[in-house]
Predict the 3D structure of the following.
Amino acid sequence: MTLIHEPDLGTPAVANDHDVTLTIDGRAVTVPEGTSVLRAARGAGIDIPKLCASDNLAAYGSCRLCLVEVEGAKGTPASCTTPCADGMVVRTDTDTVHALRHGVMELYLSDHPQDCAGCARGNCEIQALAVQTGAAEVRYGRGGASHLDDTADTSNPYFTYDPKACIVCNRCVRACGEVQGTFALTVQGRGFDSRITAGGTDFLSSECVSCGACVQACPTDALTEKSVIQLGMPSRTVVTTCAYCGVGCSFKAEVQGSGDDTRVVRMVPWKDGGANEGHSCVKGRFAYGYASHRDRQLSPMARDSIDDEWQVVTWEEAITRVAEGFLALREKHGVGSIGGISSSRCTNEEVYVVQKMVRAAFGNNNIDTCARVCHSPTGYGLNHAFGTSAGTQDFASVEQADVMLVIGANPTDAHPVFASRMKKRLRAGAKAIVADPRRIDLVRSPHVEAALHLPVRPGTNVAFVNAMCHVIVTEGLWDEPFVRERCEDADAYLAFIAGPEHSPEATQDVTGIPASDLRAAARLFAAGPNSAIYYGLGVTEHSQGSTMVMGMANLAMLTGNLGREGVGVNPLRGQNNVQGSCDMGSFPHELPGYRHVSRPEVREIYESLWGVTLQAEPGLRIPNMFDSAIGGSFRGLYVQGEDIAQSDPNTSHVEAALRAMDLVVVHDLFLNETARFAHVFLPGASFLEKDGTFTNAERRINRVRPVMPSRVGKDEWQVVCEIATAMGYPMSYAEASHIMDEIAATTPTFAGVSFARLDAEGSMQWPVTQAAPHGTPTMHVGSFVRGLGQLTETVYVPTTERANRRFPLVLTTGRILSQYNVGAQTRRTPNSTWHPEDVLEIHPSDAELRGVTSGDVVELSSRVGTTRLTALVSDRMPAGVVYTTFHHPVTGANVVTTENSDWATNCPEYKVTAVQVEVVTQAARANAGAGADVPADAVAGRP
Amino acid sequence: MAGTVPTTESARATTTRELATAGRAQRGPLLPILHAVMAEHGWVSDEDIAVIADVLNLSRADVHGVVSFYHDFRRTPPPAHRVQVCRGEACQAVGAQALYAAAQARFPAGGDVEVGEVFCLGNCALGPSAVLDGTLVGRLTLERLDTAAAGWTA
């Protein structure tokens, strides 16, 4: 395959039912009314030149290259800013137009490097247009004033800005604002002095979030990936899916070479990607270097005891050791003494074979997934309320939302590409209600301001959502026809929620949300007309995580906000394949498609296909595995792509469990923290080496295509099959697509899915069935999957983890833009330039009380453990709450988190830990007291 | 990218915040606020830009772009004295170019007198014209400039 160049029609598509027909260069062209002449012409294959226009940006009309003649109109209008009209006659190919374009191009070239061979891209749009307009020679000579001596800004680790090549077309500035929504770029000065700048400073110290939108927008070599400068242009494209967050962006992996010599030159977002539509963030766009990092372990290793050194072994020996080890444990300690953990980082196909190995070869249901510790309450709660364990909408739905309730999610950091869509919609006039203890960027950042920020106290979400529903019911704002027609147990619920104990006035001391703000929020949400709920782990990772998910489902049902675009209950999934790993039967109680293991008719499907008898009782969940390991009954564990020793709560408990086991098998890219306790290490393949599918937060099944062969010689699913086979249960597939075929054959919601169908459609959102052969963007239209929506009496039960005199503060956790989860990938990339360590954010008054200033090393202790962090005094925090990220192992955030968990799913209560903070080492205070020493780029409220 | 959120502000930033807050309600508030900051501080600092951006909920780049577009919004502290020589066509026709060059030689860059250029003061009949510390002067010569400067340094 060669390098894919995606067409650019110059201006965005216009949605309009009314068409107009015009004539361009003698051809009749019909387009929706409002379409630009430029787009109409380019769509019809008439190549009007352009520099400042791009079909992801509003028309700008600055470059003067797309000039055309319009019969009856004066002059030569820019086709990008000229809307098509019925009967219009346009000529793009006249002598006048040619002469004008030639003259304009000469002016550009008079201040542009002529040395195309010295240009990294070697084929920029300027060069192409010089050829197209025939303006290779410049009448003005080369001696005049120019910008050819300007120096490049190389401060960003991933790209350079070289003003020599810049034509100040403003595409980057507009992309930063319109697409990304950061507004970090501007034009400085005027006239000849005009230069693009990141706000007058270099890119690295500016507001830039390094999403890459400007680099992609640049028609010249001015903004270029450093990798392109270093390696040269790529030669072929593989379209694949990002392996970071649950947004699931589609990317073009642009590479050089083939086979084992394949080298990724850059990752460029794919315009046809359903989730991202051509946008990206600093992780997916740039932070892929971990896949070739020297830390990557490429050979299987084994050791008899975790105190021994690792020995490199052959695949054959490693697999034999694993299989014989598990068989021996099963023989000695019983069938339930071994189990496995699948990963939300892996493909659907890999997850499926892991659960199949556990169920068919291990012979039990001791399979769990890392989704246990993030979104298991989503699956439970949404299934309970609606009948499907998934979000109700696609991402594009946000473009129809009038009100967004964002709760327990920080999209600009954790789901940045979707956050850009949200911000675009907010700039267009939608209103946001942000319920979060921390003043996140969506509360207020350039050009976006939430209508209401409700600083809900950690652990009181259910009281909050009940108060919302209480106001909506008692003030008569609920959608009675919707509730009566589509929901059940309505009367009991209405009576429950109308109780005075749920009123904002009664709950404000618990939630910390002033009653007047809460009433305003409830009224705004009820008014809609399209109100959507977006939430993240700040909802699920609580002792009442599942209750809160049901509470939000209640809120959506009460207000009739389900079953159409612009509404819904939308989980923002943490990892790339959280949705998929849950879909694939990774929970100990569910076979693929969320069907309980106790259902004989479901077991029968797999028993007949797999030729085994399946257990009808659920197996062990991850926390049960740890407890049983310490108790001595659980002895062997296979862990794929999850660093449980770092990511699971109460680290010392996890480590004790791992130490207690006889055989721990780690299947991963890196020798992670868990590998310290492992006996066999199986090297994994990075997403660039995988063939399979990921399913994102909107149930979109995206293809992951191998950019290069597995660097460890085997695909992960193949290794799993070999373990099962060595244990006496033969498992084999000729290729990954056959695994999906088995999934489709056994799982009704995946019935119409195959690699071939996905390749043809681009992507599909499950359920893909005979009734919905192209997938289902919006669920529960007309009726719920379970029939009637289940309204549930969501009683608020405070967590037992409460601040007291010894631990007076509450710790909550989250992510930052440049890093990802436990940092195994991003820490091995230059992304650490932006976030070299985790810090503890603390409110000024809490800090003052403890003598803490920014930069101090502080001790953070809870009733289960103690760790050390650098403090950052920040008025983003409410008093009484401290916050940290958990990206760096040295932070040990989970040393302090407790073993509290969701009542229904055991999802750990990461978001609430009572703690104390004490100063250990004071930062250098040379400038103490000098308020003016605050850096100018860091004035309050401007993160 | 996301930076720190300090909680203390300099006295200057506080003043700028008050000016920006007072001006934010008007339509198109940025230019009037920048004028107010110029009047108060004589120039626009990085800190002022950050504060104004915060108050108006703009990016710092947005504010920087506007500030840099207008020459009269200074990004450096003002000099003790300013000479702004008109370089419009009418004044050029009566020797403004030579006067400008001479003024630049007389008051080298970096000293406490700053020589700048403007394009037409509307005083074309009496060129060459200049503005000396805010006062319009017609029929300006280097000698008259020296006389004025003697008064400054005295």
Observations:
- The first helix of chain A runs from residue 37 to 43.
